[in-house]
Amino acid sequence: MQLDHRIPSGPLTEKWDRFRFETKLINPANKRKFEIIVVGAGLAGASASATLGELGYNVKTFCIQDSPRRGHSIAAQGGINAAKNYQNDGDSVWRLFYDTIKGGDFRAREANVYRLAQISNQIIDQCVAQGVPFAREYGGLLANRSFGGAQVSRTFYARGQTGQQLLLGAYSAMMRQVKAGKVTLHPRSEMMDLVVINGQARGIVTRNLITGAIESYAADAVVLATGGYGNAYYLSTNAMASNVTATWRAYKRGAAFANPCFVQIHPTCIPVHGTYQSKLTLMSESLRNDARVWVPARPGDKRPPAEIPEPERDYYLEKKYPSFGNLVPRDVASRNAKEQCDQGKGVGDTGLAVYLDFSEAINRLGEAAIRRKYGNLFHMYEKITGQDPVKEPMTIYPAVHYTMGGLWVDYHLMSTVPGLFVLGEANFSDHGANRLGASALMQGLADGYFVLPATISSHFAESALLPINTSHPAFTEAMDTTKGRIQRLLSINGTRTPDEFHRELGLLLWDHCGMARNEAGLTLALGRLPKLKKRFWQDLKVTGNGADLNQTLERAGRVADFIEFAEVMILDALSRQESCGCHFREESQTGEHEAKRMDDTYSHVSAWEYQGEAQTPKLHKEPLVFENIQLSQRSYK
Amino acid sequence: MTVIHLTLKIWRQTGPESKGSFKTYESGPLATAMSFLEMLDVLNERLILSGEEPVAFDHDCREGICGMCGAVINGKAHGPEKKTTLCQLHMRHFRDGDTLVIEPFRSRAFKLVKDLIVDRSAFDAIIAEGGYISVNTGGAPDANAIPVPAFTAEQALDAAECIGCGACVAACPNGSAMLFVGAKISHLSLLPQGQPERSKRALALVKKMDALGFGNCGNEQYCEKACPKGISISNIARLNREFMKAAFCSVEE
Ligand SMILES: Cc1cc2nc3c(=O)[nH]c(=O)nc-3n(C[C@H](O)[C@H](O)[C@H](O)COP(=O)(O)OP(=O)(O)OC[C@H]3O[C@@H](n4cnc5c(N)ncnc54)[C@H](O)[C@@H]3O)c2cc1C
Ligand code: SF4
Ligand code: FES
């Protein structure tokens, strides 16, 4: 397997222009002749489908939900970054680029990240033109807020539901193409396999979630925009249907999986409260703009927060990181919360929580101003916990949130399987070892609206695509494989539900491949996986049949893939013996317990290649070259 | 941890053509901190192990934003709490010993799929008719080129918050989609960017809504009460104004 990043030559600032100039174009009349499959209708998939349709391609778009308006992107709260510098506070494309590279702890490609920062401004223009009602100042111009890991105010937002508004923008642009006949929708469809013919991605196999029918579709290129795999941990802030199935199947057909161990654990989530719990709820990081994080200074202090006087509180982030304070990047904030709780200073019933306190901001700005900014988040918090954050501090704890790892892609967003493109959270491209807040929405939309539409034409112009259809034996083989697997899941008839196995897997990963990792723990978890997998395939219980709407079967299929995927994730965490960003190897820390990178040995992307059932996957390394910035030990002091 | 027990009467129907009926289940002990959907999860785990097919229900974000969940609880769409989706409804709002009757969102325009799942694709079909601003990617002017008063942006967002859940339709005795359509029309017609297609959009959306079998608005306001996002009925008034103006004054076909 060859990892050719295909980054254009020339100065960093000119690479994207140069690419667009040098790339072969397809004339408009010919675009009509190409069929493109887009799997996923979150921000990345919907924006790509809309734009490809506008350009004249024929697009088929698939998603799991009943409507493409419901992709997991809808849940994003805080905002989207852009280098507009509307606040005149010193922002620039270069600064956004630098912050993103640094935030990712120098484990992303310079060229990709620079392009992302360049495109960021066009995204905001596009969204405003679509009618996205971003927050405004009284004079009518766009408002901004600041987010973790940045000292400028560059985040655009629509109350606490930025993702919803951006997705509805992309969705409606796509629906316009549905009306125009350029995009055909396939909701309630789950991709089960990728079809590769002559080394090129030429189609997919899906399961119709209403009828259970196994269907296949052929195309000239396949685009995966299927989101992240955070649900491997069972409890996460992701939506229930978020899965690794689509990318995992593609991996088994030859697409390399990059940096699978890079999983972001978000510092501000509502703490776990019971074993029946099905998911964790994020409280947007934007809250850290106006809230202060603290714990009692004395371990074991169980007094209610109001009874703990100022001098007996420990505002540990402000103390430890005076220049960024409560706005340190997520990985730093999460690790520090865990550290405080490990010292016995955690609060709440379980002792696994810290306070997020708005009282100072309420005194300064007034309750009304704070409610205007965060009203819907407060509402959500109160619904879940029954407590009003204006009256008493929120309690929060870290939770699995976002996956920086994903299928390996080159500068064109193409995977190691020619013709298979990967966008949004599903790829590994821009966030290195840690993603900054408000940068995922930016990346998903950059990929979908601007990057893929430019790069896919060069693929069509440069490759010889033989005419094929779904009667090709490769389709039959993939369909038979899928049917066989479903039959197997249905016929076990054991004694444990898919969720029971999922919970067990989640706990194993959280304990040993979570906020802090070490060799002994990872090795132990790796050793347990084969047994878990074996029990799953011997003792699983799925009711009903395959030819019907069957949610237990859907879940079983996804859990089976998570179990297999966990192995690569742990192998990746084991092989990277440095700490970087979210990946904290206890063996590699500074005297002050901060992550210690080892640039000489680990300044690379780890890409794993499938070697067959029961074979250890093969590790390939793409060296990261930094020509424009100086690597430094990240410091937010 | 406070614990309650409930009696659940749940609508079971294997498919659109089959005959459905209520089936009664005892909930077993439930923590009051549980969400409604977690309560269904617990029931379903038990059903699976006993070999009975679990209750099919739609859900995804479980945060009240994707609009996927929804059922009628004791006659109320999304249950008894105001401005709350089913996934954000918690068991602390019920009393030990309560009986809950749980049914799907029923309406002529929403065909039943299975148990509590209905087909709401009619909403997508309405949006496809013009629930957008026709701009291609690229070439948009600078985002600050057209100032929008903060108040107007807020008002547009109030309407744009609709999550497309369909509770308004289920709650309406006539199965009207006026609140959903009114929200979309308001969102776009309030903004300067939405002006060029304002008339065309109002006409097209209303036409499609009627064609899909949604009923007329009888001004009974059940929709507003059921709406988990607090979409105001004033959006229906605005839709009526927009439609009238377009129908009488617009030169466009
Ligand atoms: C609670 C929360 C808040 C967040 N807040 C922010 C924020 O404020 N700012 C920010 O920048 N980022 C935020 N993020 C991250 C960001 O929302 C996501 O990374 C981003 O939206 C992912 O978009 P996507 O298009 O790549 O994938 P998704 O939105 O996850 O979409 C995936 C799509 O793929 C489909 N799909 C998946 N698997 C299959 C399959 N097997 N077959 C067919 N279809 C499939 C799904 O149906 C869906 O349509 C947040 C994330 C969460 C969880
Ligand atoms: S108007 Fe309210 S009830 Fe109707 S679809 Fe929108 S959010 Fe749901
Ligand atoms: S599950 Fe998304 S709104 Fe309830």
Radius of gyration of chain A: 24 Å
Using the 3D structure, state the CATH architecture of the domain at 267-398 in chain A.
Alpha-Beta Complex
Query: Total number of helical segments of chain B?
Result: 8
Number of helices of chain A: 17
User: What is the CATH level 1 assignment of the largest domain in chain B?
Assistant: Mainly Alpha
Query: What multimeric state do the chains show?
Result: heterodimer
Radius of gyration of chain B: 20 Å
The hetero compounds bound to this protein are: flavin-adenine dinucleotide, iron/sulfur cluster, FE2/S2 (inorganic) cluster
What's this entry about, in short?
The complex is a heterodimer of chains A (637) and B (253). Helices cover 37% and strands 14% of the residues of chain A.
Give the key terms.
heterodimer; A: 637 residues; alpha+beta; Flavocytochrome C3, Chain A, domain 1; Methane Monooxygenase Hydroxylase, Chain G, domain 1; five-stranded parallel sheet; five-stranded antiparallel sheet; 19 strands; B: 253 residues; Ubiquitin-like (UB roll); Fumarate Reductase Iron-sulfur Protein, Chain B, domain 2; 2 domains; five-stranded mixed sheet; two-stranded antiparallel ribbon; elongated; binds flavin-adenine dinucleotide; binds iron/sulfur cluster; binds FE2/S2 (inorganic) cluster
